[in-house]
Amino acid sequence: MGLYIHIPFCRQACNYCDFHFSTNLRGIENTLKAMEREIDLRFLSAPIEQDTYYFGGGTPSLLPAKIISSLVDSAMKNAPLKKGGEFTLEVNPEDVNNESLSNWKKLGINRLSIGVQSFIDDKLKWMNRSHNSIEASTSILRAQDAGFENISIDLIYGIPSSSLSEWQFNVNKALEMKLVHLSTYALTVERKTQLFYEIKKGESKPLCDDRAEEDFRWYRNYLCQQGWDCYEISNSCLPEWRSVHNSRYWLRKPYYGIGPGAHSYDGGSIRRWNVSNNIKYQKSVGVNNSWYEEEFLEKRDIINEIIMTQLRTREGLDSKILGKWLSDIEKCWRPHLDAERLKKDEYGFWKLLDKGLFWADRIASDGFIP
Length: 370
Known about the structure:
- By secondary structure, the chain is of the alpha/beta class.
- It contains 15 helices and 15 strands.
């Protein structure tokens, strides 16, 4: 099992982000108390040991030491992390200092995911990030000096008005800093985000798929040449440094999600998600069941999820899983096979080829069972 805890607070809104969060930090204490109640309720019958913890957001690193310590205590009491289990904390560069690093170490956190996004100041300003390039670099060095070896950073590519040389600078900067893991994401425009409205008003340039694809293809080939394990479309690492927790999602292993907007999955046919509203969540946890919803997946829904997630991985999709739909799905993928975007290896695994990697979602959806 894995435990995901969603901290729905940020100091300011990035222009592209559509995750659930609030910039009203006065609600932190009441929301975190409700999250501790949810943990108690979810593990009411008996404690269940977890293989991984992942504190995401939002910005978990902005939590005061006392509050995050209380939340970790609640988790350890009800869903103890196994000895040596991966414990990830998402952090923003501006929150990384000697005191915070010491506190995180004491809590048992052994993996940091730092939201760098870029090492270029004008791009950080354009994204409305709250840190600068110096803070980005310094946060990594401080974490390494404090003894954190398992460090990942996020980087965003395909930014309007960006160039391939700028993206190459970002990636090379990360490699120079001896990081063991990178998560890289193509910038997307989601409705109701600041970026969506900026583009609609003509205040920002629209995204260019060709520009993003150029970044992606260079990055993917370059890291593979450097001996990195490009184990999922958006995630690469040095050998033996894969994200254990995030791999649960792609392999459809069970996990609990705690907090407003958090999702849970039982590993079979039940998905559950919490309301993306901090006030409603606070008021209803432990009072009624209006703080979450459940979905019971049909067999075809499960197959479609497997196609979407496993096709993104280096290992690929085992065709035996597709059952009675195998021939229909493979017929839908014939154009991609002919165009050398996709292949079926000698063991019956469907894998994306270089031409198909950037278009993974489109290829997967072409094979979905209606």
